[in-house]
Fold:
Amino acid sequence: MSKIDLTKLSASERNELMQQLKDEQKKQKGDRETYKIMVDEVIPKFFNELVETSTNLAAQKRRVIDGFKDLIFMKCQLYDIDPNTQLSHTFSNLANTMRVTLGYYTVDAYDDTVTAGVQKVKDYLGSLKSEDAKIPVQMVNKLLSKDNAGNLKAQRVLQLAKIAEESGNVQFIDAVQIIQDAYCPVKSKQYIRCEFKNKDNKWVSVPLGLTEVDIEVETKQ
Structure:
């Protein structure tokens, strides 16, 4: 696009150019106002549809949970399962082509005895001499770091237990065991998973949320 040298334009040409600019700005302003009006019209329609979808999903989730409640009770009774310990249950049909899993997400949490275990680990680390350099002190301290909620991560404690076992030190092993015994996860949101076996005999998840659902987009040729 070539540049226009305003000094070479006559007064009438400059006025005409300024008028074109004003018209374009006016049109752009009008288009933007039209856009905002269109957004204001579309939002209520789809917002209400999404609220209805959410309400239906909540109702369906409740029906599924209620429908499996007696089966979970029977399973725990028949197989001597502690319902407070096992937080997820999977059910499959006889042909093993469909399965539904109900469970709870958990948040790592510990009772107050965890502080004794952590302190015992730190005391052990503090007693190490240079010849005990085989113990990865920096890594152990990192594994003892807490998350944003102020709790140790269960996965890190498992890694800590492995290091303690490999060290063979009774004090270290006992300290980590105290931490593990203090573990008491807290139930979070309840989830439901639905899966089926495809023609390749592989389990495929049925998407149950708008984020997971895939739609085929048709492209115009």
Notes: The radius of gyration is 32 Å. Residues 217-221 have pLDDT under 50 and may be disordered. Strands lie at 88-92, 98-107, 186-197, 203-205.
